[in-house]
Automatic annotation (TrEMBL):
Transmembrane segments: none
Keywords: Aminoacyl-tRNA synthetase, ATP-binding, Cytoplasm, Ligase, Metal-binding, Nucleotide-binding, Protein biosynthesis, Zinc
Matching NCBIfam families: cysS (TIGR00435)
Protein name: Cysteine--tRNA ligase
Length: 475
């Protein structure tokens, strides 16, 4: 078994060997909780959920850290505009993000630290950088990383400081008086509080009162939860520069090995343009979930290889819905024929070699889905031929592959929860109608049969006739 993953720093697909045999440490940059999530926020999270599931299926123990940025310029600005305390605003949207993750079947991270919960670790890292000559203070509460002090700065994205324009990656000077930095590309480790900002949004440090810079928090939390050196750091493609470049520089300048591999997930685009709030083209997850069931949205996000741009078109959800209904249709029919398969059996089942090879090849989900569809066809053929043993084999195999993608139709995640009395009542009423229709067809009363079908269709119920009898679904 050789898992091969693309390394952004090396710009090539390389064999993946964990630092500690049998264990993997992953740090995934999480949300800045300033507003509701759009589909672009969810794609990296779903992609890393698939990675985690596959590494686990391969027998590795995965520790996944996904942070929450709950203090930031944007959080302060948005909370002020909304008339809320900044911490209440952050807590509100942290819950909204969590609800979106849960809705799409994302396994909760091993730990999900907030930036405000790791301030002591950030101050310690900042002091270390100052002591080693890689950071300096200006004014009261402003501390900067000196990019010229670290010759390897730019190694992640293969850029040189002298080749950058003054605007690229540059950060506005924090605070007010005495805050000027040495070089345009020096970035903030700590920011002095600005006039009008809440007192509660700053902390005391040896360099003055202020709040953390965006880049410092991730380096501090990664070390706290994964150690000085860990396996994989990832996030969206847009984070490579300056965020991840700055993280790597400050962590390695502090003497830590930091991430041994970088993985970045490509954007979700519309008409070739990256989705973002600032451009006004971000599709809110809540809007998508109003248009389609959660597994359909997850399928649309997961079906494209994570390093490929995902072009979100008007028919994206409908195509995903069609595929999802084919998968659920087989799992439902097969389970009715041979009985439910225990989740423990699905979790332990071997996946086909072709599927495993595709997933080992830098999570080639499109190729893995081709194998899924081969077995879907084989399962439908077995159903038609009446071979129960073959039906069960294909059911287990199909569910095992889909479980890796977080898309097993029989997973309780995708079942209807809550008060099921309405569903039971509907099922009974439709069953009675289908029985009456079957009797009408047996008596060759086609007018009555068609009337029943039309009545069900008008109520949003689609009837499908098969050799095993009529089935129904919500249209």
């Amino acid at each position: 078994m050789t898992i091969r993953l693309f390394d952004t720093a090396a710009r090539e697909v390389r064999d993946f060997t964990p630092i500690t045999p049998g264990e993997v440490g992953i740090y995934l940059c999480g949300a800045t909780v300033q507003a509701p999530p759009h589909v672009g926020h969810l794609r990296p999270v779903v992609a890393f959920d698939v990675l985690r599931r596959w590494l686990t299926r391969r027998g590795l123990k995965v520790t996944l850290i996904r942070n929450v940025t709950d203090i930031d310029d944007k959080v302060l600005a948005k909370s002020a505009a909304a008339g809320r305390e900044w911490w209440a605003h952050a807590a509100l949207y942290e819950r909204v993000f969590t609800q979106a993750y849960d809705a799409l079947g994302v396994i909760p991270p091993t730990y999900e630290p907030r930036a405000t919960g790791s301030v002591p670790e950030m101050v310690g890292l900042m002091e270390r950088l100052v002591e080693r000559g890689h950071a300096y203070a200006t004014g009261e509460g402003n501390v900067w990383f000196d990019v010229h002090s670290w010759p390897a700065y730019g190694e992640l994205t293969r850029q040189k400081v002298e080749d950058l324009s003054p605007e690229e990656g540059a950060e506005a000077t924090a605070g007010t008086a005495g805050a000027a930095k040495k070089n345009p590309h020096d970035f903030a480790l700590w920011k002095a509080a600005k006039p009008g900002e809440p007192e509660s949004a700053s902390w005391d440090t040896p360099f003055g009162r202020g709040r953390p810079g965006w880049h410092l928090e991730c380096s501090a939390m990664a070390r706290r939860y994964l150690g000085e050196t860990f396996d994989i750091h990832g996030g969206g493609l847009d984070l490579r520069f300056p965020h991840h470049e700055n993280e790597q520089a400050q962590s390695r300048a502090a003497g830590y090995g930091f991430a041994q591999r970088w993985m970045h997930v490509a954007w979700v685009t519309q008409s070739g343009v990256k989705m973002s709030k600032s451009l006004g083209n971000g599709l809110l997850v809540s809007e998508l979930l109003a248009q389609a069931p959660a597994p359909v949205v997850r399928y649309a996000l997961a079906a494209v290889q994570y390093r490929s741009m995902l072009e979100w078109a008007p028919d994206t959800l409908e195509e995903a819905r069609t595929t999802w209904e084919r998968l659920t249709g087989f799992v439902t029919r097969a389970s009715e024929r041979v009985g439910d398969v225990p989740a423990e059996e699905v979790a332990k089942a071997e996946v086909p070699e072709a599927f495993a090879a595709a997933m080992d090849d830098d999570l080639n989900v499109p190729q893995a889905l081709a194998v899924v569809h081969e077995h879907l066809r084989a399962g439908n053929t077995a159903l038609a031929s009446g071979s129960d043993a073959a039906v069960r084999d294909e059911l287990v195999t199909l569910r095992a592959m889909l479980d890796v993608l977080g898309l097993d139709p029989a997973d309780p995640q995708w079942s209807t929860s809550g008060d099921d009395r309405y569903a039971t009542a509907l099922d009974g009423l439709v069953a009675a109608e289908l029985k009456a229709r079957a009797e009408a067809r047996a008596a060759k009363d086609w007018a009555a049969s068609d009337a029943i079908r039309d009545r069900l269709a008008a109520a949003g119920i689609e009837v499908q006739d098969s050799a095993d009898g009529a089935r129904w679904s919500l249209s």
